Amino acid sequence: LLDPAGRLRSTVFEEMTALARRTGSVNLGQGFPDFAPPREMVDAAAAALGAGHHQYAPIVGIPALREAIATHQRACYGQELDPDGQIAVCAGATEGVTAALLSLLRPGDEVVLFEPRYDLYGAVVEFAGATAVPVPLLPPAFVPDPDDVRAAFSPRTRAVVLNDPHNPTGTVASRELKELLVELAAEHDAVIVTDEVYEHLRYDGPHEPLATLPDAAERTLTVSSAGKTFSATGWRVGWVSGPRDLVQGVVAVKTYLSHSAAAPLQHAVAEALAFPREFFDGMLADYRERRDVLVAGLGEAGLTPPTPQGTFFAVADVSDHYALAGVDDAAGLAQHWAQTAGVVGIPVSAFASPANQGLYADWLRLAFCKRTEVLRAAMAGLAAAV
Ligand code: GLN
């Protein structure tokens, strides 16, 4: 987290976005859409502003949004949640994960984290004075060895974080892995925190929240948000659901983080969650097309990424391109391609702790949450440069 002078570092996302800006490259690094959210949701936000929703929302979130989240979980996953007590609205999934972990962790506790992982998880574990116990997802399939998963749990384990669908690898957790986590969490009296912000970006079958597995609900905090589903990562509206006592802890902490998420935007997200099935299907079809454009374009450039099963990220082993570029890892190639191909990706090693960085040194993450013409242009630049 700290640089050699002891100052907090900025994130790899900001670093690579700055590189893209400096070089005039297409930014396939930081994952944010370059297209607009659904018109109806934007109109609903404008209407909510016009209707005078300018003061603090309730700490737990406005009732209409909590009800919409409960309805969404029932309709999509058959999950029953009481909007009064089992759901807390947060300032993005970022605050949801942060408040969940801070509510659980005390110095000396251990948290099982799969790697590569979104940088937030490790940062919050450090802020809490707890210890991250990494479990590597093994390339090229990015599946963990079940023995490593078992070995990571100890009497000090307080929580395990699962991100499913998974950023950065674009994989989806298997039923067996989720069952194993439920079993191990029960055995060690640990809480499972699942980050499911890509729940609607599943290309090969419906998402299955871990909390809906047998015996899971009582020890699982599920985090999601509007950012990815509705192409509005700047709105910062997310939520946490789970058993009452655990959600109560999340609320207690978030009170002193954001207090409450943006009131007018909560009204708009409540409406968006109730969009008809066709909206979600159409959004997914658009993303499948973007994914296929990126994967095909990478193929033209001589890369063979595993086809993403979820999220808006693909990862590719780029080691065949080192010689031509005169580099020796994906981080070097990311810099080189920013200059020569006009494309910026993020080296997957940036998502790992030092001990595991070597495992991912050859992998580059590319985001495909961009208009297809932008993706095609980026891939043409890459093909011309390699
Ligand atoms: N979640 C997005 C990504 O992984 C953006 C992260 C960020 O900017 N903090 O790219």
From TrEMBL:
Domain Aminotransferase class I/classII large: residue ranges: 26-377
Cleavable signal peptide: none
Keyword Iron-sulfur set for record: no
Keywords tagged on the record: Aminotransferase, Pyridoxal phosphate, Transferase
E.C. code: 2.6.1.-
UniProt xrefs under InterPro entries: Aminotransferase_I/II_large, Kynurenine-oxoglutarate_AT, NHTrfase_class1_PyrdxlP-BS, PyrdxlP-dep_Trfase, PyrdxlP-dep_Trfase_major, PyrdxlP-dep_Trfase_small
Top enzyme class: transferase
Keyword hit for Kinase: no
GO MF annotation, one: kynurenine-oxoglutarate transaminase activity
Cofactor(s) recorded in Swiss-Prot or TrEMBL: pyridoxal 5'-phosphate
Any one GO cellular component localisation term in the record: cytoplasm
Listed PANTHER family: FI04487P (PTHR43807)
Similarity annotation: Belongs to the class-I pyridoxal-phosphate-dependent aminotransferase family.
Protein name: Aminotransferase
Protein source organism: Kocuria tytonicola
Species classification: Bacteria, Bacillati, Actinomycetota, Actinomycetes, Micrococcales
